[in-house]
């Protein structure tokens, strides 16, 4: 997604050198001062004798445990660096902490969609990312970029896949590999509905935020997003009309189930066969592994359909990166950790490979760093809950097909009040595609873009 055309953010000036006593070699951090016009940034690389202490925030839950184990590998490589790894409610706490500058961590996990709105409070990591740029997903670089500078360390890549019930498609005579376009997907849904008149085979998302995130995945497939690289709103376009008209057809023809992601109604429809086609991110793999009981082992994944024959067979849906606050006490050491986890071995293998938390490996995303995504060197195992399917191969192929994007605008999450809600009205049959575009574009421009 991209950034709106607004006045450039105020920049932090001057430079001081950090970390001499800690043995940080040539790594420097630009900070506020009286002269100069460069954003606050980190440059150079730490020396082998680096030492010190950092506080790192991550979300609680299984992912925290995965990173905790991976950080143990970092400690082995850098025994003189003490890492205080803390489980925090990132969404509730991080933004306010960045603004106040009090009790900041040295680094934190964060959603890509939220980084652009806080770039002025983050270190510019462009120079440090440079050695890895050519081997990092163009999509992940673009969504971490504001005014040409990179403010997040790209971590996961969340390709879109088509999830399907193998048994139901076989019974309906549908070859999943023959679903090459979204028109084919509608035809597959019609075949399924002929077998089960109660079915609404295609999942349509009822949560406005996730629904808009899903919409952006479909737009990304077509090489577009809500705003372009210059910040101009581009919702009023052929690409968005194509998606919204497809949604209207699915609704009008009774081919969809409108349900909230993995809530009770959604799970019931997945289990009883009413839903059999779910175009969604790779992280939907959580459902058959953890939540679905009756149909566990019956689900499979393949490439998303394309919007036009020969078009991209995937798009990105969500994603997270790591940020370093501009007022962090030890930003250099935070970079060293994130470089290890994202770009170095055994760092990324420790994150994605088999662990006590996930014995078969972490399979709800793949690394954004291309050398870590080798099809013949999987970081996670075939998934038993998918009938032993090699999800790694399917997902890395999808990851390679994701088109580049534009930076995510700082107002993107707020636009859900307009676009996300209007998409729900379309799915409920209360708005037309033109209504959604006209009303959403007008309100986003007036209330968000023009006020940014």
Automatic annotation (TrEMBL):
PROSITE patterns: PROKAR_LIPOPROTEIN (PS51257), TAT (PS51318)
Compartment list: Cell envelope
The species this protein was found in: Streptomyces rochei
Major place of residence: other
Similarity remark: Belongs to the bacterial solute-binding protein 1 family.
Superkingdom, natural source: Bacteria
Listed InterPro entries: Bact_solute-bd_prot1, SBP, TAT_signal
Keywords: Signal, Transport
Pfam family, one: SBP_bac_1
Name this polypeptide is given: ABC transporter substrate-binding protein
SUPFAM superfamilies xrefs: Periplasmic binding protein-like II
Species lineage: Bacteria, Bacillati, Actinomycetota, Actinomycetes, Kitasatosporales
